[in-house]
Design goal:
- By secondary structure, this protein is α/β, with parallel strands linked by helices.
- Helix content is 41%, strand content 11%.
- The chain has nine helices and six strands.
- Strands 3-2-1-4-5-6 form a six-stranded parallel β-sheet, covered by helices on one side.
- Helix 1 crosses helix 2 and helix 5 packs parallel to helix 9.
- The longest helix is centred in the N-terminal third of the chain and has 16 residues.
- The two termini are 23 Å apart.
- 35% of the residues are buried.
Amino acid sequence: MKTSINLSNIETWIFDLDNTLYHSSLNLFSQIDKRMSAYVADFLGVSRSEAYKIQKGFFREHGTTLRGMMNCYDMEPEPYLNYVHDIDFSIVKPDMKLINALNNLSGRKIVFTNATEKYAKKIITRLGVNPNIEKIFDITAANYIPKPNPIVYDQFIEKFNINPTKAIMFEDMVRNLIPAASLGMRTVWVDTGHEWAKNQIELIKPDYITNGLSEWLSKVTGR
């Protein structure tokens, strides 16, 4: 892990959304987690506890619960995505530190998420950073193939004509940084303290580690 921060050659800033662009202390994803279990339980006709086990198994084996349900049960993605993302966003407030930092970063800022663009737009609007985010690459654009599948990273780079050696990616899940590093991107792990987010940490040494994106970017920009 690098101790100094020199990102003068960065042209593209790539941000994961959940637990990365906003701080994990908001615990927003817990709402989605419960709704995923409820949807799986109803779809498969099983108990919530059994649905939770299936959900987490698919997350480990397929990258997302959605991908597992699509692969194993031919589930249609759109009704599921609409349901699980129908949550209370009121706890997301404008992040002035993040706004100021992004305002002072030169280059493109792109969100790369396993969620939907509609959901991502709600988050970035409430954070107050929507003027800073140029594009959103969501799970639909990825044909419902989630990070960390390398195919999706290739699609992402081609779509936005990104030079990986002049890009940096921010993620709370270590395994999603591995393909980025392989392509030559610099990587920042936003460590939320969740054990599941550390999966495959033995396979990568992130260039930088932080427990808060806003604070880290403020150090970079001096704002």
